[in-house]
Amino acid sequence: MHIKKQRLLTAGPTPLLPQALRAMMGSDIYHRTEDFRALYREVLSGLREVFGTANEVLCLVASGTGGLEAAVSNFFRAGDEVIVCSAGKFGERWVDLARAFGLSPIVLEAPYGEVVSPERVGDALKQHPDARGVFIQASETSTGAEFDVRAIAGLVRATPAILVVDAITGLGTMPLDIDGWGLDVVVGGSQKAFMIPPGLAFVSVSEKAWQHAAAANLPRLYFDLTRERKSAAAGESTWTASTSLILALAEALRYIRAMGMDKLVANAQSLAAATRTAAKALDLELFAPACPASAVTAIRAPKGMDSSAIVRDFREQFGSIIANGQGAMKGKIFRIAHLGYFDFSDLFAVIAQLEVILASRGVSVELGAGVAAIQRAVLNARVASVTK
Ligand SMILES: *Cc1c(COP(=O)(O)O)cnc(C)c1O
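Above are the sequence and the pyridoxal-5'-phosphate SMILES. Below is the predicted complex in structure-token form.
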């Protein structure tokens, strides 16, 4: 096999929307002009529409973690008690951020592959009635697990605490009713379901969270959301906008709005469900079987096998870039992404490649069994839509 097209199949960065990629070439523009303000306003209102909220959605020049940092530094006071749910690398990032900014985190941990239950959050809120915030992931990308955001929100709502959601891979892969459920701060990132390169973080802020912001006293400058809110009202970003990424985002948001955010979610959900069926057909074990996310499916390497070898084979044999486990999960799992610009043709390729890789490494798999499972899922959906 002499030609191997490089295919980016990771959970972030994700495959780019072609028209968004092309739009980036028009970035020889100045950001303090009426033309750019019109574009920036379109992007901010488009973000609000795809987030599905009447809350303000602000745009920051940073990778997703910049949005997480802003969510910590803008709404709290030094020493504030906060409840942090941690069940993976990104939960651990919340803990690190809370400590870095001098908060007092009460950490609710769950093993990798599981999530922190709403009951545990409810108990912690009772034990710590002064807690000012609750931090969760919507989708924990490192383990492929999905939190029960709605149930947790229902518990936080009645307390003085704000709910801060890292939804960086939750947005566009699961229903998130920001206003209906009461999600106070929701963070997104450009390189996930938004189909554009890394470099922008999005933060939605509820009225309750703005009240917290008014009393907050932690150091911040670049990520000052109150200041960013004022700039946004004038159709601008506080600092120099990432013009290339804003051009790309405008195209991606047009695409997502035309399709409907619910369809983007359904797309990820059906790819994830089909992937789980394929894993089962190949006798592979899911890493988060009880609470599987639709952003990414984490699969355990077969017994005695290092998942790094699978990831390497994908790259070397087929040019496909898929994700290994992170941290302690490295070598144990590999992750197949579904968020953003992924379709069933991508999935057919991934599963067909996986079958060859496993067979070539002596794992007993029936070639085609995983692919056939996906074909059946596609066929059933097709029949159901035709006979509807
Ligand atoms: C990708 C991701 C982030 C952000 O990581 P960056 O490298 O800063 O973009 C945060 N949380 C989750 C759950 C993610 O998947």
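Residues 18-259 form a domain with the Aspartate Aminotransferase; domain 2 fold (CATH 3.40.640.10).
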